[in-house]
Amino acid sequence: MNELDFIKSHINENLKIFEDKFRDSMKSSVPLLEKITTYIVKRKGKQIRPMFVFLAAKTGGEINESTYRAAALIELLHTATLVHDDVVDDSNERRGFFSVNALWKNKIAVLIGDYLLSRGLLLSLDNDDFHLLKIVSHAVREMSEGELLQIEKARKLDITEETYFEIIRKKTAVLIEACCSCGIASVSQNKEWISKMAEFGSHTGIAFQLKDDLFDFGNNTEIGKPTGIDIKEKKMTLPLIFSLNSSTSYDKRRIINMVKNHHDDPAVVAEIIQFVYDKNGIAYAEKKMFEYRDLALKSLNHFSNSGPKEALEKLVHYSINRTK
After folding, report:
1. pLDDT at residue 223 greater than cutoff 60
2. Distance CA 221, CA 143 (A)
3. In this predicted model, what pLDDT tens digit does every residue of 305-316 receive, in sequence order?
4. What is the distance between the alpha carbons of residues 52 and 129, in angstroms, rounded to a whole number?
5. Which of 77, 193, 207, 319 is 20 to 30 A from 171, alpha carbon to alpha carbon?
């Protein structure tokens, strides 16, 4: 049994039930909507977000109908943001499949995103899950702010380490935080538990994003050749930010100019990646990733030992040990 299978073993039945409930939550009498939402359901990923919801719930209590609605709410609102993101980014592919906008054009994609958003809101309101809606609405607001902050900073490339962590907390970590908060809030009103589980989700999300950022710089033993996609998109991630801050003002200006004006040149991208290795930017980002892993595990110490808690711990390790 691999690591992900062990993690899922505690909630396999819940995930199967969730799939049906999630599909039902998107149902419509409009044939075009049915066709598109069926397509969306079929290309689901590893179900990491529902896993966090269910394991967090089981760490503090027993999964109930509110837990399933929490998982569906997060998936509906998150899927809505992804559909809209693909329109904004003019992206034709997601997870190896054609994006909604690639198949049905931008106007329909935007309307699909709006529809999913409304279904999520109604799912909560119709069942008086106001506490869950508040958590997820806060997350969506933060995610939007994170995206806009990153766009703003990409123009000047003046991102500090502090700003970088603010961006990834808002863009990535806040969603994992919402999964964990909603999971435990669906089974308990214990404010301290909800706070600790939110803390756990946030730290795990930051470690997860640091791992993603490290993928861009490659590793011969694990993930093959570096991709440099972030550099090509002028995204300033921690390995590069640290390396620039460890450089002379001349080198800093030179590298920033390369990122700003020559990011499409493969030779330039390769030179920037080598610069990051030379300045120990990879080692520094890895150190930070392990620090956030440890903070996440420390947050779980507040809960009694159990199979679901152990699975959450393994989910943290999986987040930083994965190879894609």
Report:
1. no
2. 33
3. 999 999 999 999
4. 19
5. 193
- pTM here is 0.87
pLDDT band at 221 (very low <50, low <70, confident <90, very high): very low
98 has which bridge partners? Answer: 93
d(CA 297, CA 306): 14
Tell me the domain boundaries of the chain.
Answer: 3-321
Among residues 172, 168, 177, the alpha carbon closest in space to that of 201 is found at 177
Give yes or no for a contact between 235 and 272, defined as CB atoms under 8 angstroms apart: no
Q: Which CATH superfamily is domain 3-321 in?
A: Farnesyl Diphosphate Synthase (1.10.600.10)
pLDDT at 95: 66
Task: Identify the bridge partners of residue 93 per DSSP, sorted by sequence position.
Answer: 98
**Average pLDDT value over all residues in the chain:** 87
The label of the residue with tokens 């998982």 reads 71
Dihedral angle at the C-alpha atoms of 224, 226, 227, 230, nearest 10 degrees? 140
Token pair, residue 15, equals: 């995930």
The candidate with the shortest Cα–Cα distance to 205, out of 109, 293, 79, is 293
- The residue assigned the tokens 């450089």 is 247
Q: CB-based contacts of 71: which residues, under 8 Å, 6+ apart?
A: 18, 22, 49, 50, 53, 54, 179, 182, 183
DSSP secondary structure of 232-268:
HTT---HHHHHHHHTS-HHHHHHHHHHHHH-TT-HHH
Region 106-124: mean pLDDT is: 88
Question: Does residue 233 register a pLDDT over 90?
Answer: no
Question: Quick one: tokens of 103?
Answer: 């198949």
Percentage of the chain modeled with pLDDT above 70: 95
Q: What is the secondary structure of 88-124 as a DSSP string?
A: HTT--EETTEE-HHHHHHHHHHHHHHHHHHHHHHHHH
Residue 207: per-residue pLDDT? 95
Across 55-64, average pLDDT:
93
